[in-house]
Design brief:
41% helix, 434 residues, alpha/beta, four-stranded mixed sheet
Length: 434
C-alpha cells in the first residue's frame, strides 16, 4: 500500500492553515537567531512519526554542528498530517524556518507562493547532475530543492502464479502491452482462485491517486493538464486518450478484476495470496522479497501505447525565502550532500537512492542486484507531476474525478467537469503568473 510518509497530500485547507498560525508561528521571523554559539538556524521536517528517517536528519544536523562553529542547526519535527498546514500558516505570518522539507510535487506551488528561495549548492560533494532527475525540484529554471531518494511504482507478482496460467513475465526490454495485461487479468479472473486478481490500492486517499494512476493515464497518451504553458486542462484531461484511460480504469471494476475500494493493507492481502498482481511501491520490495524469495517477480509498468510511466519526486530539502541567514542555510544544504548520507537515507527508509554512487553501496540496489530494476524504473520511466503552482488543485480534482469514475460516473463527463474546474482555477489565479 502507498505509505503516507512518502508523499504528502498536496491540497491545503486555508481554514485549517489559519487555525494553525498560533500553534506553529513560534520563534523569530526568518528562522535564524544569533548567540554566543554562532547563528542558530531552525529546520522543520515532516518526520515526527517516522523515527528511521528522522534519525538520519538528526545525524546530519549533529555532524554539521560538530564540523564548524559558525552555524548551529536546531531541529523541529512535525507529524506529517499537520506539516503542510503548518508551513502554510507560518508562511502567512512570515514565521517560516530557514530550512524545511517539502514534498516534490509541491515545490512549484511553494516557490510561486513565495515560501521558498532558490538554492545554490555548487561545490557540494554530490553534483546535482549526478542525481535522479526526479529528485531535484525546479521551477522556472531555478533549483529550489533536492531529495536524497525517490520511490518507484512497480507490479509485484509470484512467478509461479504467472507460469501456472501461462502468463508471460515481462521485462524492461519487453513490458506488457495493454492487450497482454488485459488478457492476463481475464485468465486470472477465470481461474476462480482470485476474487480480485489485481490490487491497485484503490482504498488509498489524497496524493496516492495522482501518483499511482496519472502515469497510466499518461501512458495512454493523456495528461492532467496541457504542459505547454500550463494554461488549460480542457482538451487534455478530457481528451480522447484520457477518456480511453478512464474507460479502461472503470472496466477493471466492472469486470471484477479490481475492487472499487481495496482493504486497509493491500500488500498484506497480496502476500497472503488474495490477489495475483499488485501495483505498489518500492517501499514494500524488501518485505515482498523476504516473504516470497526467488518467486517474487518485479514487473515494469504496462506500456499502454506511449511507453511505461511511473510517478516521480518525493520529499526534498529547501530554504525559505524569509530566511535571514541564507548563507548558513545553504552551508547546511551543501554539507548534507555527501554520498554517505544518500546511503543512510536509502537504508533507513527502504527507498531508491538518489544517485548511482549511493546505489552501489546498498545491497540489492547495486547493478545486478535484485532491486536494481526499481532504480532503472525510476531513472527511465519517472514522469514528474505537472511543474505548476496549480498542481495541488489539479491533483485534488483528478482524485475526485477518478473516484467518481470507479463509482460508475461517465468517464467523459467526470473528466470534463474536472478540466473545467481546473481551467477556472487557473484563470482565477491569472494562470499562476508571477
Amino acid at each position: 500500500m502507498f505509505r503516507t510518509r512518502r508523499l504528502a497530500v498536496a491540497s491545503v485547507a486555508a481554514a485549517a492553515a489559519t487555525a494553525l498560525v498560533a500553534g506553529c508561528a513560534t520563534g523569530s521571523g526568518g528562522g535564524s537567531t544569533s548567540g554566543a554559539d554562532g547563528d542558530t538556524l531552525t529546520l522543520w521536517t515532516h518526520n515526527a512519526g517516522n523515527s528511521a528517517e528522522l534519525d538520519v536528519v538528526k545525524k546530519i544536523i549533529k555532524d554539521f554542528n560538530g564540523s564548524q562553529s559558525k552555524y548551529k542547526v536546531k531541529l523541529q519535527a512535525f507529524p506529517q498530517s499537520d506539516y503542510n498546514n503548518s508551513v502554510v500558516a507560518a508562511a502567512s505570518a512570515r514565521k517560516l524556518p530557514c530550512l524545511l522539507d517539502v514534498d516534490g510535487p509541491n515545490v512549484p506551488n511553494w516557490a510561486w507562493g513565495g515560501y521558498l528561495a532558490p538554492i545554490d549548492v555548487d561545490g557540494s560533494e554530490v553534483p546535482l547532475s549526478d542525481q535522479l532527475p526526479s529528485t531535484v525540484g525546479r521551477y522556472k529554471d531555478k533549483v529550489y530543492g533536492f531529495g536524497f531518494y525517490d520511490v518507484s511504482l512497480a507490479f509485484f507478482a509470484r512467478k509461479s502464479v504467472l507460469n501456472k496460467y501461462d502468463i508471460r513475465i515481462p521485462t524492461m526490454d519487453k513490458p506488457w502491452t495493454k492487450t497482454e495485461f488485459d488478457a492476463a487479468l481475464a485468465k486470472l479472473k477465470k481461474s476462480g482462485k482470485f476474487k480480485y486478481p489485481l490490487e491497485m490500492g484503490t482504498g488509498g486517499t489524497g496524493e496516492w491517486w495522482s501518483y499511482a494512476y496519472s502515469p497510466q493515464l499518461q501512458s495512454f497518451g493523456g495528461d492532467l493538464v496541457n504542459r505547454d504553458g500550463y494554461k488549460t486542462a480542457s482538451g487534455t484531461l478530457d481528451g480522447k486518450k484520457s477518456v480511453e484511460w478512464a474507460t479502461w480504469f472503470r472496466s477493471l471494476v466492472s469486470k471484477g478484476y479490481m475492487s472499487k475500494k481495496s482493504g486497509a493493507d493491500p500488500n498484506k492481502d497480496f502476500l497472503a495470496g488474495k490477489s495475483a498482481i499488485q501495483w505498489d511501491g518500492s517501499w514494500n520490495a524488501t518485505k515482498n522479497a523476504d516473504k516470497l524469495g526467488d518467486d517474487l517477480a518485479i514487473i515494469p509498468p504496462v506500456d499502454f501505447g506511449n511507453g511505461p510511466k511511473i510517478g516521480g519526486a518525493s520529499w526534498q530539502w529547501a530554504m525559505s525565502s524569509s530566511c535571514s541567514n541564507k548563507d548558513g542555510a545553504q552551508a547546511w544544504l551543501k554539507f548534507s550532500r555527501q554520498t554517505k548520507y544518500f546511503v543512510d537515507y536509502a537504508k533507513a527508509t527502504g527507498t531508491i537512492p538518489g544517485t548511482e554512487a549511493a546505489a552501489k553501496q546498498i545491497d540489492g540496489y547495486q547493478p545486478g542486484g535484485k532491486f536494481n530494476e526499481l532504480v532503472q524504473f525510476a531513472r527511465k520511466y519517472a514522469e514528474v507531476r505537472p511543474v505548476t503552482p496549480a498542481y495541488p488543485y489539479i491533483s485534488t480534482e483528478f482524485e475526485k474525478a477518478a473516484q467518481d469514475i470507479l463509482s460508475g460516473a461517465d468517464p467523459k463527463n467526470a473528466l470534463g467537469q474536472a478540466a473545467k474546474d481546473i481551467d477556472n482555477n487557473l484563470k482565477t489565479n491569472n494562470y499562476n503568473a508571477g
